[in-house]
Specification:
single chain; mainly beta; Jelly Rolls; eight-stranded antiparallel sheet; 13 helices; transmembrane; FA58C
Length: about 1200
């Protein structure tokens, strides 16, 4: 039973035995000419120019009379009506101009009816109400109806005609008799149950007194319910095992009810002017009584207005924010305001009643929601009532017509449109009105239509032309649809999709795509099929390794002990994923590799027994509901073994799993068996049995779609695919790179429709298409050339509302679709990629990741078998190399790139993560170049040096950088020494200023450079960059450093104090000592003494210099000061929280030989310093290096470091 309430099918209840229902009218060979055989009485018209221009002469290809029908006046209110004699299926309409004349139609509307009243407009498409007409008087233009109409009466309304002639028409209608018989049922004929619930809701405006087609087709537990042309699929609840049908009091006739005549107000020029109640009843009235029914989608609009007697003011009844309002206004003063009702813009019929008598005024909506007042003045209609419209004449200076003074609110009449005092006061009412009453007398709208009562303009009488633009909804992916009379709007805010119809996903399709946008590890929403039906899902993107991993966790990812219930022979462990089944399978399908870790630790809890025996435990995996898997992680499917059994190294050679004696773990890598859905553990009930298990998250890397590419070698090469289907909505996205100035990326043709995307010039991408309204273009211009051999992204979307084009990160360009135009894109040729059907203007270059409506086109597969096109496209670092920061090097891969951070002091997927450590006074890090031992041994040093070191040593400049936080002054930050007894020291003096001490070969004394910045020992982050520039470099590779008197004793005494604070991203050329100490402490190049705690203290956001958090941080760009003059440069800069502290760049114009860390030198000088400290009590030579340990956080008096520190 389908229960209809209001205008929607609210519920579907299936009862009784299982069978199929489907009612339809056959249209096979339904193309007979219907008009040519009709008698003269079957034709009517609004008027005729003469007897020879009568409607009976409006037959196709006939020359009788004046050769066709012409009305008395050529106006859009004219019409021609044909009575087909019975309900008929109408499939096509043909038109022709009047023979031998200049009279023909250029456009028209079609109306159908079963009774000759209550007409229903037939639309060529959902958004097209008018049909195109003729271009001369003799040619025939035929329109085949996409949706056949069933009616007895047809009415044609001229909308446009030849400007040099009049309205002239001959026509023919094609179809066949409609054979279905109507049935009316008593409510007792259908059975129902009280526990019914709504399963589906569809259809709209079903209370329009028109015939509607209802069809239901069921198979097993799934039913398709169709109302008119809209179909919804219903999955029946499990308790519907069967349904039965009972036939009761059914009469196969349909009684005709009296139909209410409606009028449609389609636009702002629509108005209806009626005389007051006294003119209708011929009896003067002392009050007012106005009633009407209306339906609309608009929240605002003027319903009616009239003037009060004796210039008492004006009464306005209007909609405001979907509420009914009554306002009485005199001049600019509001005398009364009343409100009633709410949500009156729902498209349903609502009644309005205004009554005033005996000093009491009331206005009600739908008979129950009422507002009332007792005004001190009389409320009555002075002369006329004006209904609908938007424009009005000024209240203070009313416009005077020929016979009486009136206030025209429902739109200016045609002859008054230029009147200066015709202004906009209220929004126009757009909707339908019916059952209009004045003083308890119903207004006959048919008399109004015949110009026998009142006057009107731009009205469609005897029909309600309301359209539900949200049924079916054009909003995709669950976006709510709202509408007005002329437009609809999709709210995409909570859908995960964007665009005018919520079509295109706002998320990327994989972690790989997020990485190439410059993102780092974190949680992201991914939409694996773009604009397809699969919803976005939240995953974790792990970008800390060379591969970008997508991780989907479940409810049991930690090591979990098995606790079987009493009497349980098998322990079931179900795994629940937050992603849906289709999401999981799509992720696995598009990834290059997927895996899940699985571990089982046991004691007296066997796992698989032997390959010959029955397995004691197994797991379920693969496509839902999943298949039983009798192998364990690391083995092959179906082997009934674990990894050790496959490798032959199980602890018990008689077993094929360690966990029959110990433990088993490994990775499941066969995608067809993933994801793991549950574990079934059998040998867990014996006395003394113990077991724990762990199933890791589903982890996948690689994106087959993102890197799918093809190279088009010539302008005549192309790939072709099947026809692209995007009738109502379509999105296309791809990346391209080229050196050519122009070329067509994509083209698909139809008979008249087409779609094309091209590089029109080196700086312009153009999207052009035609859906029957003429070619439309959307272009985006780039400020820089696009033929730069770098990847550029193009995203195109076309829907029923607009077309848009987005290039890279530039704002999208949009083009609105015509409000009343074609919306279906009809293509029928092959889809050409990289060229056109004419093989002209082809594209030369690379196209990658081409997706149409979320589906990836396999360019590589087609390219392998197509001459002139090659699969794949290298050269990704040209486009993505800038993502590698802080001296990271971009390294090419077949599918993408990765950042090599070996020569960077930073870490992370883009060499962006700062590496910091907390130093205590007893902490030291000694970095030794690997060539020290070789030099001492007299070997060939160049042959033993790493290539990166040799590259650095052959440069003509050195680059030393670090960041620090400390509250200690003075403090030695860095000491670098060479085998030639040269050194460079970076320190903070007792005034908190930065100093650089350097001594070169041949110089007797060290030079000192001081910055102007003070207070650097303030616990905030400061960054230092020291750049040395030199000439004619002769490198001497450093060897073991012996004791020397060349080092300033003050520096030796300063180093003994130790350093308390934070050091971060320490770098000397390509060598990063602190990074080596933190990531590879046992690599042989570093020696660490004392506590070295990794921290994020080098992050500008770190509030405490001693915070030991390991959270990755994306640091900002370091300031670098290049110098071309060769002069020393010392700069200091302070900023706020964006980059706390300063950046000091020191450029030293000197010649520096090889530099190395002099840890051993300082260590050997430690004892010498102790003796000197005891024997000598003289003051230090440098007043700025007074050895008071001015740290607020720690007191290190009496302590001497055991090693030198960085």
């Amino acid at each position: 039973t389908s229960a209809v309430t209001g205008s929607k099918v609210h519920s579907l209840k299936i009862l009784g035995s299982r069978r199929n229902f489907h009612c339809f009218a056959s249209t096979d060979a339904c193309d007979s000419a219907l008009v040519s055989k009709l008698p003269p009485s079957a034709f009517r018209s609004s008027s005729q120019l003469s007897a020879s221009h009568a409607p009976v002469f409006a037959k196709l290809n006939k020359r009788d009379g004046a050769g066709g029908w012409s009305p008395l006046a050529s106006k859009s209110s004219q019409w021609l009506e044909v009575d087909l004699g019975e309900r008929t299926t109408i499939t096509a309409v043909s038109t022709q101009g009047r023979y031998g004349s200049s009279d023909w139609l250029t456009s028209y509307l079609l109306m159908f009816s079963d009774t000759g009243h209550n007409w229903k407009q037939h639309r060529l498409e959902d958004s097209i109400g008018s049909f195109s007409g003729n271009i001369n008087a003799d040619s025939v233009v035929q329109h085949k109806l996409q949706q056949t109409a069933v009616a007895r009466f047809l009415r044609l309304l001229p909308m446009g005609w030849n400007p040099g002639g009049r309205i002239g028409l001959r026509l023919e209608v094609y179809g066949c008799p409609y054979s279905e018989s109507p049935a009316s049922a008593n409510p007792s004929a259908w059975t129902s149950r009280p526990d019914h619930r709504r399963l589906v809701s569809l259809g709209s405006l079903l209370d329009d007194q028109q015939w509607h087609v209802l069809a239901m087709e069921c198979h097993a537990a799934q039913c398709n319910l169709t109302v008119d042309q809209h179909t919804e699929t219903v999955n029946l609840p499990p308790h519907f095992h069967h349904w039965r049908i009972q036939q009761g009091n059914v009469t196969f006739t349909c009684s005709h009810q009296t139909l209410a005549v409606a009028a449609t107000f389609p636009g702002p020029r629509s108005f209806l002017q009626l005389p007051g109640a006294g003119a209708l009843t011929l009896v003067p009235t002392a009050g007012v009584s106005v009633g009407l029914n209306f339906r609309t989608w608009n929240r605002d609009g003027l319903l009616f207005t009239f003037r009060l007697p004796r210039q008492g003011g004006v009464v306005w009844v209007f909609l405001s924010d979907a509420r009914l309002c009554l306002r009485i206004q005199k001049a600019d003063r509001v005398l009364l305001d009343l409100q009633a009702g709410s949500d009156l813009d729902d498209g349903q019929w609502h009644s309005v009643d205004l009554k005033s008598r005996g000093g009491h005024l009331s206005i009600s909506v739908d008979k129950d929601d009422m507002a009332h007042s007792s005004p001190s003045f009389t409320v009555a209609i002075e002369k006329d009532l004006f209904v609908g419209g938007r424009q009005m004449y000024d209240v203070i200076v009313p416009y005077t017509r020929s016979r009486f003074e009136c206030l025209v609110v429902e739109g200016c009449p045609a002859e008054d449109e230029r009147q200066e005092d015709c202004r906009n006061a209220f929004a126009s009412f757009q909707g339908c009105l019916r059952q209009l009453t004045l003083g308890r007398q119903q207004v006959d709208l048919i008399m109004v239509q015949q110009r026998m009562l009142g006057t009107y303009s731009n009205l469609l009488i005897d029909m309600c032309g309301i359209i539900d633009r949200c049924s079916p909804s054009r909003c995709e992916h669950g976006g709510p649809c709202t509408q007005s009379w002329t437009h609809f709007h999709c709210n995409c805010s909570d859908s995960g999709y964007g665009g005018a119809t919520c079509h295109s996903s706002v998320y990327e399709q994989s972690c790989e795509a997020y990485k190439h946008n410059g993102n780092t590890s974190g949680y992201f929403y991914i939409d694996v099929d773009g604009s397809g039906p699969i919803k976005p899902q939240l995953v974790y993107c792990n970008m800390t390794e060379e591969n970008t991993w997508m991780e989907i966790h479940h409810n049991t990812t930690e090591l979990t002990p098995v606790r079987p219930s009493s009497g349980e022979r098998q322990h079931l462990v179900p795994l629940h994923y937050p992603a849906s089944e289709e999401q999981l399978l799509a992720v696995i399908g598009q990834s290059d590799h997927c895996q899940q870790e699985m571990a089982y630790h046991c004691r007296k809890s066997r796992l698989l027994n032997t390959p010959e025996g029955s397995p004691l435990s197994w797991w379920i995996g693969g496509v839902a509901p999943g298949g039983r898997q009798n192998y364990w992680a690391g083995a092959q499917p179906g082997s009934q073994q674990c990894a050790c059994g496959l490798q032959g190294d199980c602890l018990d050679p008689k077993r094929y799993c360690n966990c029959d004696a110990d433990s088993d773990s490994g990775l499941l890598v066969h995608k067809e068996s993933l994801p793991v859905r549950s574990l079934v553990l059998g040998d867990v009930w014996r006395p003394g049995s113990e077991a724990t298990y762990r199933v890791g998250p589903l982890r996948c890397h690689g994106d087959k779609n993102f890197w799918n590419a093809a190279f088009f070698a010539t302008e005549t090469s192309y790939l072709h695919f099947p026809t692209f289907h995007g009738e109502l909505s379509a999105d296309i996205s791809f990346l391209f790179k080229t050196g050519a100035p122009s070329g067509v990326f994509l083209e698909n043709l139809g008979i008249r429709d087409f779609i094309r995307i091209e590089l029109q010039s080196p700086t312009r991408v153009l999207f052009s298409f035609d859906v029957g309204n003429g070619p439309l273009e959307v272009g985006v211009d780039s400020s820089s050339p696009l033929n730069d051999e770098r990847w550029h992204r193009v995203r195109v979307e076309r829907n029923v509302k607009e077309a848009s084009l987005r290039l890279d990160t530039m704002p999208a360009a949009t083009r609105q679709a015509p409000t009343d135009g074609h919306i279906h894109l009809q293509l029928n040729s092959q889809l050409f990629i990289g060229g056109t059907a004419s093989r002209q203007k082809g594209f030369r270059g690379c196209i990658r990741s081409l997706q149409l409506n979320g589906a990836t086109m396999d360019l590589e597969e087609r390219a392998r078998i197509t001459p002139g096109v090659r699969p794949g496209c290298p050269g990704h670092c040209d486009s993505y190399g800038a993502l590698c920061r802080n001296h990271g090097r971009c390294m090419e891969r077949n599918n993408g790139f990765h950042c090599d951070c070996d020569q960077s002091a930073y870490d992370g997927v883009f060499c962006h993560a700062e590496l910091s450590a907390i130093f205590k006074p007893t902490t030291s890090v000694h970095y030794a170049f690997q060539m020290e031992a070789s030099e001492r041994g007299g070997g060939n040093v160049s042959a033993k040096l790493p290539s990166s070191i040799l590259s650095d040593l052959s440069l003509r400049a050195e680059n030393v950088s670090l960041s620090f936080r400390t509250s200690q002054s003075p403090a030695l930050l860095l000491f670098v020494s060479s085998y030639q007894r040269e050194y460079l020291a970076l320190l903070i003096n007792k005034h908190g200023k930065l100093e650089v001490h350097y001594k070169l070969h041949g110089n007797k004394e060290a030079e000192v450079l001081r910055s102007q910045a003070k207070g650097l020992a303030d616990g905030r982050l400061h960054t230092v960059v020291v750049i040395t520039v030199h000439s004619n470099l002769n490198w001497i590779v450093p060897s073991f450093v012996t004791e020397s008197e060349e080092v300033d004793p003050n520096l030796i005494r300063l180093s003994s104090l130790g350093f308390s604070g934070c050091l971060s991203v320490v770098r000397f050329n390509s060598v990063s000592p602190l990074k080596e100490a933190l990531l590879r402490p046992h690599g042989g190049t570093v020696h660490i003494s004392g506590p070295l705690v990794r921290s994020n203290c080098g992050s500008p956001a770190a509030s405490s210099p001693y915070a030991a958090h390991n959270t990755p941080h994306l640091s900002g760009e370091r300031l670098f000061h290049p110098s071309s003059s060769g002069q020393p440069l010392v700069n200091a800069m302070r900023t706020d929280s964006a980059l706390i502290g300063g950046v000091i760049a020191v450029i030293i114009f000197v010649t520096v030989a090889g530099l190395a860390v002099a840890a051993k030198f300082l260590y050997r000088r430690k004892e010498t310093y102790r003796n000197q400290e005891v024997k000598s009590g003289h003051r230090d030579e440098s007043q700025d290096l007074a050895f008071e340990h001015q740290t607020d956080s720690q007191n290190t008096s009496g302590q001497n470091p055991k090693e030198y520190f960085i």
